[in-house]
User: Fold these one by one.
Assistant:
Number 1:
Amino acid sequence: MKLSEGLAALAEKAKNVETRVDEYTREEQAKRDALKEKWSAEYAKAEQDWNTAFAEVDSSMNAWWSGIQSNYENHKAEQKAKWDAWKAEHDLAKAERNAENAEADAAAAVAYAQLVANEAQAIAIEAVGARAHAEDLKGG
């Protein structure tokens, strides 16, 4: 075999190896691209699932929190109504006690005034009698 034929055969083998390497590289690149595409799709799906689940949890939490706030506001309103009713009842009782005390004070003042008026009348009669006696002694 001549050198040129050996070189041509070697060149042909090199070309075949080069072709196989190019095919292998393309196949591997295609596999990597397919994996990348698959993983990107899986990531997008997982992200969508995550966002959907998060939105459901967020909605659920908002509903739960709104329920707690609503229950608290209702409880607070009930307690205020009970407090207002209790206060009104006790304010009425206090007002009635104050009115009864004022009426008793007025009755005592009227009784004292009547006693003083009777005493004043008795003293006035006594004074008239004393004056009459004094006048009798002077004139008489």
Number 2:
Amino acid sequence: MGPGQTTAELGRVQGAGEGDRPGLRAWWAGLIGSRLFVVWAERRYAAAEEVDEVLDAFGLVVAGDVLDVVAAVLAILFVRRLTAMQGERAAPRAAPVAPMPAAEQTG
């Protein structure tokens, strides 16, 4: 089951509709956007011939790396929310655990 299916299923079970679909969409949009930008920037870098062109393209490659970091942060936020949703779903099913008796002291 992929992240989209898991999110939808958890949302359905919890009565939350689609779960954290906006988080999933933000993560994927960030990931795809950053990848497309990096591919474009790397092509500009490879085609650069003058020093100014190389420096400009290098700046774009660095900006692409920053977009990758943003996409990674979005992924972390999504996974944390998904994990919290799974914990909320599992909590009612968890059996209560009786406390362990204190060990008797001999002296």
Number 3:
Amino acid sequence: MKILKSIIFSISFVITFSAKGCVIPDLQHYINFDPTDTTIGSKKAKEIAKWLIFWREGEGIKYIIIFSESIENNQHFNAISNQRVQNITSLITPLLEEQTEIKYGQTSHDPSASLEKTKTINEIQISIQPQCKRSGNCCGGNSR
């Protein structure tokens, strides 16, 4: 019985530490805009370019998702948001390999939503899905 308990303890110990998942840092980049601004400026553009090139040359990029915000029935704000997405797309497209897909996501807010619920309304998020996620080797490679 003592041997069985030792074996069970050993197995649970090994499973606990081998099941520990890996975390890949720096997969998102957030861009905050002034309420009426659609451009990001050269400093932010360089920061995004360096970030994308780091991933492209390292683990590789399977696809990118650009998340934006919209407000229901607010054509003025939605036009600004769409222009921001177009500008970011124009910046990142030449930096990507030809087969890298750009996907888009959008969160729509009710116009009567509280300020707390819409505090990210002027923020665009760029997320990377690295190539290593497809093969499952992210934590065994350069991402460690």
